[in-house]
Write a structure and sequence with these properties.
The complex is a heterodimer of chains A (127) and B (371). With 127 residues, chain A is an alpha+beta fold. Chain A has a single domain, classed as RNA polymerase II/Efflux pump adaptor protein, barrel-sandwich hybrid domain (OB fold (Dihydrolipoamide Acetyltransferase, E2P), Beta Barrel), CATH 2.40.50.100. Chain A is built from 3 helices and 9 strands; from the N terminus they run E-E-E-H-E-E-E-E-E-H-E-H. In chain A, the strands form 2 sheets. In chain A, strands 1-2-3-9-8-5 form a 6-stranded antiparallel beta sheet. Chain A has a 3-stranded antiparallel beta sheet with strand order 4-6-7. The longest helix of chain A is centred in the last third of the chain and has 10 residues. Chain B has 371 residues and is α+β, with helices and mostly antiparallel strands. Chain B folds into 2 domains: 284 residues, Gyrase A, domain 2 (2-Layer Sandwich), CATH 3.30.1360.120; 86 residues, Aminomethyltransferase beta-barrel domains (Elongation Factor Tu (Ef-tu), domain 3, Beta Barrel), CATH 2.40.30. In chain B, strand 11 and strand 12 form a beta hairpin. In chain B, helix 2 packs across helix 8. Classes of the chains: A alpha+beta (127), B alpha+beta (371). Chains A and B meet through strand 4 of A and loops of B.
């Protein structure tokens, strides 16, 4: 299973990348895309929306099932990957390249409390 | 985990699926492949070339003895008297006295002392119990034999028949003249195959029953002939595009076949009596099963979503994303009066989305029929 060491993770299968400008980029993990199967629909949050940590803010839907995507930390949506709504299958091809949205975290330190790659690996091993 | 899980059953091809990297799921107590990678690619392989499904979880039941036809004439909702030529097949429901659907199945006429049923995996036990009890009362000398010694592979798609002939040299002569919904026995290298020109995809192809030990060699030979393994995921999108019902979803024991789009399989006009006939005659259709294509908004239609129509509310019984239409489609049970061309609204995650009513099938033989 592909779990890049430079990212942070949630137990609800989001990945989180710290960017140089202080924002964070969020997507769903390779494990999540494999479990969902072929994605056919992605619904993204509106830019400017304020999210609480753990708030459902996006939907990824496969042929099989719909799944909510949650905010890993509190913050404001500063960008969404609009192109993905036309090509949701990009998430299946490379889940760590096909990002969903970017947040400006309310507390920049909050990201450090998320799971690291080893922590996430043990989450999916238990599932 | 409120109940201990029943021991999971597996088909003779289980190891073959796992070796091919299949994602396995529980399906009616069976450990079955849902996909081997992209289920959409598997879907397109069947529409455009050839794909194969392990359908060994379904159960073949042989019914043998004197006057099997007479027994089935009363036991099945469709009329086995339509089966005049050996090898001919018929789709039918098995009904309760109150008209509820116990199962849907295919019955093959082999000879007057031998008919063959192919029933759903999840309903096998109750079907056998029901048929045994019916036979005990009406034809106690009949012998019902579940054939768990046989495996089944469905090869489907425009290239499916040619692929079988290539994979199983010598099979062409006995099967090339088979019309749709006909079957024949073929013996190749001492192994007997029951080859039926039937399927659950809306494409041409065969469903092949054989001794379990012959299944893996045939599967590998078909793969070598260019047939792509396909799982339950693609099987569901293909059958839904083909407008075919799935037992347990589009109908069950609480639903009359007349409310499940299956009136065409029920013969109420002939004097023939059958289990459930009186109930169906007393209770005409209350609802219609129609097709829906999602036109407004985005998302995927799913079972249990509410459908708002001008004639009242209905409910989706099966919904999915159609890889062929590149749109979401569904079967929905709606009030009578809803007709093809009507605009309706479907509730997806608390918001209303526009959909158009169509007459299934959505796709047949690779062609979109509802454009």
């Amino acid at each position: 299973m592909n779990i890049p060491a430079n990212l942070r993770y949630t137990s609800s299968h989001e990945w989180v990348r710290n960017e140089a400008d202080g924002t964070v980029t969020i997507g769903i993990t390779d494990h999540a895309q494999a479990a969902l199967g072929d994605l056919v629909f992605v619904e993204l949050p509106k830019v400017g929306r304020t999210l609480a940590a753990g708030e459902a803010c996006a939907v990824v839907e496969s042929v099989k099932a719909a799944s909510d995507v949650y905010a890993p930390v509190a913050g404001t949506v500063v960008a969404v990957n609009e192109a993905l709504t036309a090509t949701p299958e990009d998430v299946n091809k490379d889940a760590f390249a096909a990002w969903l949205y970017k947040l400006q975290p309310a507390d920049p330190a909050a990201v450090a409390s998320l799971l690291d790659a080893r922590g996430y690996e043990s989450v999916i091993a238990e599932a | 985990m409120s109940q201990p899980a029943a021991p999971q059953k597996s088909t003779v091809l289980n190891a073959v699926h796992r070796a091919a990297g299949a994602r396995m799921v529980d399906f009616g107590g069976w450990d079955m492949p849902v996909n081997y990678g992209s289920q959409i690619d598997e879907h397109h392989a069947v529409r455009n070339g050839a794909g194969m499904f392990d359908v060994s979880h379904m159960c073949i039941v042989d019914v043998r003895g004197d006057d099997v036809r007479g027994f089935l004439r009363g036991a099945l909702a469709n009329n086995v008297d339509k089966l005049a030529v050996p090898g001919k097949a018929l789709y039918t429901c098995l009904l309760r006295e109150d008209g509820g659907v116990i199962d849907d199945l295919i019955v093959y006429f082999i000879d007057e002392r031998w008919f063959r049923l192919v029933v759903n995996a999840g309903t096998t036990d109750k079907d056998l119990a029901w048929l045994a009890q019916l036979a005990a009362a009406r034809a106690p000398a009949l012998v019902l034999t579940p054939r768990r010694d046989l495996a089944m592979i469905a090869v489907q798609g425009p290239r499916a028949r040619a692929a079988l002939w290539s994979a199983l040299p010598g099979s062409e002569a006995a099967t090339s003249a088979l019309a749709p919904f006909n079957a024949a026995f073929v013996t190749v290298a001492g192994v007997e195959y029951f080859v039926a020109r039937t399927g659950y995809t809306g494409e041409d192809g065969f469903e092949i029953a054989m001794p379990a030990a012959a299944a893996a060699p045939l599967w590998q030979a078909l793969a070598a002939a260019g047939v792509r393994p396909a799982g339950l995921g693609a099987r569901d999108t293909l059958r839904l595009e083909a407008g075919m019902n799935l037992y347990g979803q589009d109908m069950d024991e609480s639903v009359s076949p007349l409310d499940a789009g299956l009136a065409w399989t029920v013969d109420l006009k002939s004097p023939r009596d059958f289990v459930g006939k009186a109930a169906l005659a007393a209770q005409p259709a209350q609802r219609a099963l129609v097709g829906l294509v999602l036109t407004g908004g985005r998302g995927v239609l799913r079972a249990h979503q509410v459908v708002h129509t001008a004639h009242g509310d209905g409910e989706i019984t099966s919904g999915t994303y159609s890889p062929t239409l590149r749109a979401s489609i569904a079967l929905a049970r709606v009030p009578l009066g809803v007709a093809p061309g009507d605009q309706v609204e479907v509730m997806i995650r608390d918001s209303a989305h526009a959909a158009r009513v169509v007459k299934p099938p959505f796709v047949r033989n690779g062609k979109v029929l509802v454009a």
